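Worked problem 6 (solution included).
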Amino acid sequence: MRTAIWSCRGRCRAAPGSAWPTRINPRGTCRSRCGSRFRARGVPTCGRIAYDASQGDPMRIVSRPAIAALLFVAAWATGCASGPSAGLHATPPGLGRLPYSDADVDFMSGMIPHHAQAVIMAGWAPSHGARKDVAILCERIVVGQRDEIAMMQNWLRDRGQSVPDATSTRHKMKMNGMEHEMLMPGMLTDEEMAELDRARGPEFDRLFLIGMIKHHQGAIDMVDVLFKAYGAAQDETVFKFASDVYADQGIEIERMNKMLEDGGRPK
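Solution. The predicted structure is:
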């Protein structure tokens, strides 16, 4: 299921020649910022599911805490400014007609280590005794997110940007003239990854599903930050990819939540 891309059917009051394409972002808001809103098919409405990892049980359909998103915004503020200073760049010839932004670069650069950790987590399924439905989900994550990592690397390389390693699980960014390594929203800590790696059978299934739901929600938070940034996601590749992340990972959150109910917990 994919995010719909609709126009606001003439209701947009954006000035002629506006840099903002008249289309709908995953929030269902006109991308030209006319304020029109729509119920776009394919956008999950129940993706905001928080889990109490310390208890191991899902807290069903609760308001998502803003803490993770706020921390991410603070750390990412340099690259995702909300005004013209954020910077728009002409796309190289043959790669598209719309410009790309600093926020696009930060999003693609940060999503590579985010995906890399998901590939590691899912790659443990065969050796850690995952049950059949969890193993199938893990295989799909490994194949899909490896392909997306390659796509993001090519996108950055084509625009002369720094390209993160496909296996790196830390996002490198400069703040105050110094380079820092950081985890992106929703990513598991080293301690959580070690606990998952030690688990086997039903305990692996339970910890994997809880961890991957948290991981997916972090990716959705990253899309939220991207679409709030000035001039972001005008680039066709970035817009489609970010929209797919929002829709597809929201749907997978629902599926994993159901898998937890169906036997993700040890008996």
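Discussion: The radius of gyration is 19 Å.
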